[in-house]
Structures are given as structure tokens and as C-alpha cells.
Specification:
The radius of gyration is 26 Å and the shape is globular. The chain has 3 domains: 7-110, no CATH class; 118-266, no CATH class; 352-469, no CATH class. By secondary structure, the chain is an alpha/beta fold. Helices cover 45% and strands 20% of the residues. It is built from 21 helices and 16 strands. The strands form 4 sheets. The protein has a 5-stranded mixed beta sheet with strand order 1-8-7-4-5, with no helix packed on it. Strands 2, 3, 6, 9 and 10 form a 5-stranded mixed beta sheet that branches. It has a 4-stranded mixed beta sheet with strand order 11-14-16-15, with helices on both faces. Keywords: Signal. Residues 1-19 form the signal peptide.
Length: 471
């Protein structure tokens, strides 16, 4: 079909206010004599022909982007809509008539949780970054000083840097930000991750906190991106200004840089991805960003983001939030290889979530059935954060995978030490009471099937879990 370009840009008042998903309802019927209509989002080289269907809705969507447009090609002209609600979801509804039959045309600009400028992609594709971002360190300091943080832990409680933080910020403990962060025990874990991880969605510009290329890192609100850090960003900025936090951060840059260099030397994220890629037949991420703080003691997490460059080439970034090497530097009972291995275990069991979780989804029904009896696998008293059967299975699998990785990566004595430590951590420490048995079975299956990727061993692992739970 030939299209004559006579384009009108439609800008209507939204149904909802800024910071919310928006829906636009257009009154004029779009008419095409043919049984299909051409629609092109601005990143597409050519229009896509959309035909009518029995459901009555003709639909096309694309991830939102600043300035992105969608053009609908009619017989003698075209109309164009622009993504004005980025990064939130935006939907447009048009009455549509194709070959005399009436339909509804729905065009979607999907919400996105990050948007990478082309320059960022060019600069960082293929890199393994290690950072202590300024706002991330601020968030960790606030959590450590908060009443809830003092009660719930998960952060260092001794050492020179800890003592320096406590002494420097003691005069500011009456700041209202701490009242905002004081939550109950049941709320603390979600509050902690929301506040800490979403801190990278902001950066300093003078005394102000301004948005970065990340819009939501952790949280359940994927429509408005509401989260604990964003909701209190004004208080956070005021605390930073009143306490002169930025001067404190600058004065500790030599220490941060020393830790960053050590973390980079000890964390072979690229090698971990290569190993996991073979075990899951999955390509690695274009960029990894390992973010840490010398304050973190436990509570690690990971997230991934996607985008594309100006040529339409996809870009995938993995972010890891972990502790730093300072936790092990003073451990006199560990030798150098053991220190490296312990830190590798922390990092690996976040990296591999990005491989394990998608594969687990392929067996969701079976895993939900086997792991529904959570008290058998993970008594709720210690593992309440993992509320779904699949999340419990994923913890078993991600940590057991490290045993395989350690066997392939470290010398025999170090691997034996790391595996025993990993088993004790999960059984006695984390509450995954059947981990020793699970770990032994996965190692046995891999030894019997050395050329089989772990992703193909899932049916055997699940069958064993079912039989084991029925004993």
C-alpha cells in the first residue's frame, strides 16, 4: 500500500495527572477501505500492517522513549501521536474501520524502568563496572543510622569506617528523615531494598538530588514507580545538605577507590557470565555494574535493564548490589584464596539469579507443587522474605550452582572449603534446611552428566525434590 504523508500531531489532555499511567480516547473514527492499517513507531524502518480480528481490538505497542512517535497511515493522509508520558505507560484508543468493519485501535507506549542514552551504551558496552555511587553510600548510611536499621541489622557494626560514620553523623540523628525510615519489622526488608537500591535513580547536582537514567530498580509499583527513596527524596536531600554529606563522601574517596580496586580484582563477573552462559545456553549481559558499600554486611540483590542504541542494536545491563571486600580483609582465619572465594560466592549467587530465574519459570507448575510445603524446605521463621515456591527453589538452585562453579574455578582444597561454608550458611544461617541434600544431588547429577548444561538437568532435579519431599 502506498501512503501519502500528510501528518497531524495529536496532543490531548490526559485522563490522569503526571506521574501516572495515561490513557487517551480519540473520538474521530479512522477509516481505511482495505482490511489492514499501517502503523509505524519511529524506531521502525517500515509500517507494520495490522488486520482486524475476532476480538475487535487491533493492538500494537513499543517501549516508550523521549520523543518517540507512532504514525497511523490512512489512505490519503496519516496521523501521529507522541510519547509525552515517558517513562510511564501511555495508551491511545481510536475508533477504527477496516473494509467497513468496526474495531478499536489501541497503541501503547510501554512504561520503562531505565533509559540509556546512546553515548552511555557506546561507552559501557562490554565493560564490567565497579562503583560506590554517592547516593548509594548516602542511602546505606541513613539505613545504618535509622532506628529500624539498628534493630534489624544487615550492616556492619564495627570497624574504623563504621566508627567514623557514627561519629560524623551523630549530631544529625534528630533529622526527620530517620522518623520516615522507622518502620516495623514486617515492613523492614521491602523498605530496606526500596530505599537502598532506588537511590541510584538519583544523583547530586549541587545540593539537589536529580533523576538519573534509572526510574525504578526495586519495588512493586511498576505504574507510578512510587518507592521509599523517591517518596522521601526531599528529606534525603535536606539531610545531605544539613550534614554536609558530600564533603564526608569526598574526604573518604581514597578509601572508596582502594576498595573499588580490590573489588574489581577479586570479582570476575565476566568469567562468571561465561560459565553460566555455557550452563544455560544464554548470552551474557552487555554491561555489568557491581555496586557496593563498605557498610553492607548482607542483603544482596540484582536487577537487569534493557534498551537499544541509535542503530536499534539491543543493550542489556545487569546491576549487582553486594557487600565489599572489607568484610574479609580483617578475617585472620581466611587465606587469600578463601577470601576471594567467599566474596565470589556473594557475587555469583546474585549473577546467577539472572540465569536461574528465567529457566525456573519454564517449570513453574511442577516447582509450585513440590515446594508448596515451604516448612519442609524453608521454615517461614527465617525465610519469610521468600513468599513463593519458585523463589524458594531459586535460592536452593542459585546457591548450589556456586558449588559447581567453585569446583571448576578454585583449587580442590579451596573449593571444598567454599562448598562446606555455603552449605552451613544456607542450613544453619539462612534456614534452607535441606540444602546439603539438594547440593549433593546437583553435584552428583552434574558429575554423572558432565556435558549436559545445568538448564537441561532441571527435570531430574525437580524429580529428585518430589521424591525427597515424599519420604
Amino acid at each position: 500500500m502506498n501512503f501519502k504523508r500528510c501528518c497531524f500531531l495529536l496532543v490531548l489532555l490526559p485522563v490522569w495527572a503526571f506521574g501516572q499511567p495515561k490513557m487517551f480516547y480519540h473520538k474521530d473514527t479512522l477509516k481505511v477501505a482495505a482490511n489492514a492499517v499501517g502503523v509505524r513507531f519511529s524506531h521502525m524502518k517500515a509500517p507494520m500492517m495490522l488486520s482486524g480480528n475476532k476480538f475487535g481490538i487491533v493492538d500494537l505497542g513499543s517501549d516508550g522513549a523521549p520523543g518517540k512517535t507512532a504514525t497511523v497511515y490512512l489512505e490519503n493522509d496519516s496521523i501521529q501521536i507522541r510519547n509525552d508520558n515517558f517513562p510511564y505507560e501511555e495508551k491511545h484508543f481510536f475508533p477504527l474501520q477496516l473494509a467497513g468493519h468496526n474495531y478499536k485501535l489501541r497503541l501503547r507506549f510501554n512504561n520503562v524502568t531505565a533509559s540509556f542514552p546512546p553515548a552511555y551504551i557506546r561507552e559501557n558496552r562490554g565493560r564490567a563496572l565497579v562503583e560506590i555511587p554517592e547516593t548509594f553510600e548516602l542511602a546505606n548510611i541513613l539505613l545504618m543510622l535509622s532506628p529500624s536499621g539498628k534493630k534489624m541489622g544487615g550492616m556492619v557494626d564495627s570497624g574504623q569506617y563504621h566508627d567514623e560514620v557514627m561519629a560524623y553523623f551523630k549530631p544529625y540523628l534528630g533529622h526527620p528523615v530517620f522518623k520516615a525510615l522507622d518502620v516495623g519489622e514486617a515492613e523492614y526488608s521491602n523498605n530496606y531494598y526500596e530505599f537502598r537500591d532506588n537511590s541510584i535513580c538519583y544523583e547530586f547536582k549541587g545540593d539537589k538530588l536529580v533523576p538519573t537514567q534509572y526510574f525504578l530498580v526495586y519495588g512493586s509499583d511498576d505504574s507510578t514507580y512510587s518507592n521509599t527513596f523517591r517518596n522521601h527524596v526531599g528529606l534525603v536531600a535536606d539531610f545531605a545538605k544539613q550534614s554536609n554529606f558530600r564533603a564526608f563522601y569526598q574526604s573518604n574517596l581514597p578509601y572508596y577507590r582502594q576498595l573499588i580496586a580490590q573489588q574489581a580484582a577479586w570479582s570476575d563477573v565476566a568469567g562468571m557470565q561465561r560459565w553460566l552462559g555455557k550452563q544455560f545456553s544464554q548470552r551474557g549481559f552487555d554491561t555489568s555494574k557491581l555496586i557496593f558499600s563498605p557498610i553492607i554486611n548482607s542483603r544482596h540483590s540484582t536487577q537487569q535493564f534493557g534498551g537499544s542504541d541509535e542503530n536499534g542494536r539491543s543493550f542489556h545491563e545487569m546491576i549487582l548490589f553486594v557487600n565489599g571486600p572489607n568484610l574479609y580483609n580483617a578475617a585472620a582465619d581466611l587465606n587469600e584464596q578463601q577470601r576471594r572465594g567467599v566474596l565470589a560466592g556473594i557475587i555469583f549467587t546474585e549473577v546467577d539469579h539472572n540465569y536461574v530465574n528465567p529457566r525456573t519459570n519454564n517449570f513453574k507448575a511442577q516447582i509450585d507443587s513440590v515446594f508448596a510445603n515451604r516448612d519442609f524446605w524453608a521454615p517461614v521463621a527465617k525465610t519469610s522474605f521468600y513468599s513463593k515456591p519458585a523463589s524458594i527453589f531459586n535460592e536452593y538452585m542459585t546457591h548450589a550452582l556456586f558449588s559447581l562453579y567453585a569446583t571448576d574455578t578454585f583449587d580442590a582444597l579451596t573449593a571444598k572449603f567454599l562448598i562446606a561454608r555455603r552449605e552451613a550458611l544456607n542450613v544453619e544461617g539462612r534456614g534452607f534446611t535441606k540444602f546439603r541434600e539438594f547440593n549433593a544431588v546437583l553435584m552428583k547429577l552434574k558429575k554423572e552428566n558432565p556435558d549436559t548444561p545445568v538448564s537441561d538437568l532441571y527435570p531430574k532435579v525437580i524429580d529428585w525434590c518430589r521424591s525427597f519431599a515424599m519420604r
